[in-house]
Amino acid sequence: MKRLKLFPKIFFYTLGIMLFIVTITHGLIYLLAPRMQFALSTRDGIYVGINQAKFVTEAVEKALPFSVGCSLLISVACSLLFSKAIAEPIKKISASTGQMMKLERGANCTVHTKDEIGMLGQNVNDLYANLLSTIEHLEREKEAVRDMERAKAEFLRAASHELKTPVTALNATLENMILGVEKYQDYAARLPECKEIVEQLSGMIHEILEASKLNLTAELPKPMDVPEMLKQLCEPYQLIAAAHQITFSVDLPEQFPAVLPAGSLRKAVSNILANAVAYTEAGNTVSVYMDGRFLVIENECEPIPDCEIPRLFEPFYRPDFSRSRESGGNGLGLYIVDTLLSSMDISYAFLPMESPPGMRFTIHL
After folding, report:
1. What is the pLDDT of residue 360?
2. CA separation, residue 339 to residues 26, 211, 334 (Å)
3. I need a surface site. Which of 66, 177, 198, 249 has the fewest CB within 10 A?
């Protein structure tokens, strides 16, 4: 019996119970009916008490085969209907869970009853939907981690390449000084060059370390006043702009409350301002203002070709027209801006201007 499937098992259990009831019922009738005493009326209205045991026994024996046969048929029919009603929804749930084990997207328990079996089917559907949602979330997380690892590998490869050039130059200069090459015997002239290369390396290492720590800690957003933060950020760059005869215009509203990670936003905006001042020539203008919910930073300069703009956000990339490290920086500024704004889920745009010619960086706060 243990190896039978659900439908025949329910059928035999039900049929056995019904046959047991039929047997007990007919046995009681056969045993008790002959002992019944009852009265028969005559034409004269006289009631006579008689024992009809033999008569009743014969009547029961004659009716017993027909009664037992009908009871058996009814028992079998009722057992079949009951077994099908119980086993069919469970079989559907079993078939659906088999599809769910294979993670088929369209698997679903189609049980329309409102009893406990129907609730079981609905619970299985909800559980499977949650499982698929969790799997999709894990796949997205896995892909994000894979992209992050790929980006880290590319970043480290680019960083090693960038560091190799000044290290090689410094090493060559020091070797020539040690060997006493005529051109390098003037230590007073060469040591400042070495110090300049070391300072350049120090700055690059600092920027690389800052960039490598961007995704390690998540800063919690907090209430802040954006214009107040921008005024503080703009002050040092206004002094730098004035020293290079650049007009630095700031037009901000009195208040603009927002809930953002203040440190990350300050770092991103600071890098944008630094780039705007660095790539603006004397006599031109850098403008910082807000247009509704948009923070706009503009600088008058030679517009960057559209094909070059996406690559500016790659680590250590510098356009051909500013390839040197003196004028083009370390190539990490906009990479850091992109990483920070993306981590805060803030959209931005960096597009050329036609009149006056220049570049415009727009941040949607």
Report:
1. 92
2. 87, 9, 8
3. 66
Give the C-alpha separation, 154 to 33, whole Å: 98
The reported pLDDT for the residue numbered 322 is 47
Residue 113 has pLDDT above 80, yes or no: no
Mean pLDDT value across residues 344-351: 90
Largest CA distance in the chain: 161
Alpha carbon distance 23, 9 (integer Å):
21
Question: What is the pLDDT of the chain when averaged over all its residues?
Answer: 80
What backbone torsions phi and psi does residue 296 show, to the nearest 5 degrees? -120, 130
Collapsing DSSP states into helix, strand and coil, what is residue 47?
Answer: strand
Residues 6 or more apart whose Cβ sits within 8 Å of residue 180: none
Nearby residues of 48 by Cβ (< 8 Å), 6 or more positions away: 39, 40, 42
Q: Hey, is 246 helix, strand or coil?
A: coil
Q: At what angle do helices 262-278 and 226-243 cross, to 10 degrees?
A: 30
d(CA 353, CA 9): 81
pLDDT at 213: 66
- With beta carbons less than 8 A apart as the criterion, state whether 340 and 264 touch: yes
CA angle 144, 334, 211 (to 5 degrees): 60
DSSP class of residue 217 equals S
More confident residue, 34 or 131: 131
The answer to whether 349 and 362 are in contact (CB under 8 A) is yes
Spatial distance between the Cα atoms of 309 and 237, rounded to a whole number of angstroms: 24
Q: How many CA atoms lie within 13 Å of 290's alpha carbon, on the beta-carbon side?
A: 17
**70, two tokens:** 């009908």
Read off the pLDDT of residues 303-340 as tens digits, 9 standing for 90 and up.
888 888 888 887 777 665 444 444 446 667 788 888 88
